[in-house]
Amino acid sequence: MESxxxxxxxxxxxxxxxxxxxxxxxxxxxxxxxxxxxxFARNTLVALLNTPAEQFGGFSYRFFFNSPEFRVxxxxxxxxxxxxxxxxxxxxxxxALLNLRLTIDNSKIGPIWSGQEMDEKLRIFLKSLLDNLxxxxxxxxxxxxxxxxxxxxxxxxxxxxxxxLYPARAKLCSETLLLSLPATENELTALLGSPSAxxxxxxxxxxxxxxxxxxxxxx
Amino acid sequence: MTLHxxxxxxxxxxxxxxxxxxxxxxxxxxxSYLKRQQDFEDFNLALNTAETLISGALAPPDKSPGLAAxxxxxxxxxxRILFSRGVGAKVEIRTLSDELLYVQEQGVPWEDSFCPSSxxxxxxxxxxxxxxxxxxxxxxxxxxx
Lengths: 219, 145
Prior knowledge:
The complex is a heterodimer of chains A (219) and B (145). With 219 residues, chain A is of the alpha+beta class.
C-alpha cells in the first residue's frame, strides 16, 4: 500500500515535470503568432498605401460648398472628384486636409472645410477594403491622426478610425507609418485666418505629418 | 519474513500498471512537444523566407519602398540557394481574386499527398511592366528534405 502511494506521488512529480516544456511551447505559439501579425500588418500598411484606389473599385466624392446657391445639379456634378488614380496614402492626406477640426479651449468648433462626404465615403471604402484583406484573419483598427497645429488652447487636428474588432480577444501588434501632410506652413496658417506665418499667434508645427497605424487583434 | 501473496501481487500489478500508464503519457507528451517545436521552426522559416523575398528578390530595380516586382532570374536563384540548404520552396503570387500571376518551385515533393511543412501568405503591392501597381498576395510554402 505504501509503495503504491509512493508510486502515485512519483507519477505526479513526473507529470508536473513533463508539463513544463508544454507550457513553454504555448509561449512559443504566442511569439510566433505576434511575429506573423507584425509582419502582416507592416506589409499590409505599406502595400495599401502604395496601391491606387482603382484596384479596389475606384473612389469618388462630391465636394460641397457651404452656400446653398451652389447646390444645383450642374454645379454639384462638376464638383464630383474622381480619384481612382490616387493611392490610399494620397486619399488619407486629402481627407486629413479637408477635415481638419478646430478646437479652441477644449470646445470643438468643427471642420474648417466641408469635406464630410469625402470622410464618410473614405471610411466606408477603407472598411470594405480592410474587411476583405485583413478581416478574415485578424480583428483590426486603422487610425490616421494628424495634429499640424497644437498650442495652448488651440488645436487643429484630424483623427480617422476604421475598425472591426468583433470578435477580438487580444491585441497582437501595432505598426505605424508616417506621411507628410501635403500643405505648406503658409497654407496651414491661412486656414486659421492669419495672413502670414510670421504674424500668426498659432504657428503650425514644422513638417506636419499624418501618423497611420494599423493594429491587429486575434480572433 | 512473511509473504502475503494476494496483497503483494495486487500491489505489484497496480504499480506496474501505473508505471506503464505514466511511461505512455510521458512518451506521448514528449512527441507532441517535439512536433510543436518542429511546426514553430518550420513556420518561422517560412516567414523569414517570405520577408527575405519581399526585401530582396522581389524588390523593384529602383528599390522603391513598399513595392515589389517579379524577376524570374532572381526568384530562381533564391529558390536554388534555399534548396541547396535542404529546404524546398514554392513561391506563388496571386491576385486578391485568387488568379495566379507567377509560380516558382524548387524541391517540391512529387506526391500530391505531401503537405508542405509550413505555409505563409503576406500582402504585396506588385509593380507590373506598365508601371501600374496591383495589390497581390505572396504565398510561400516550404518542405524540408
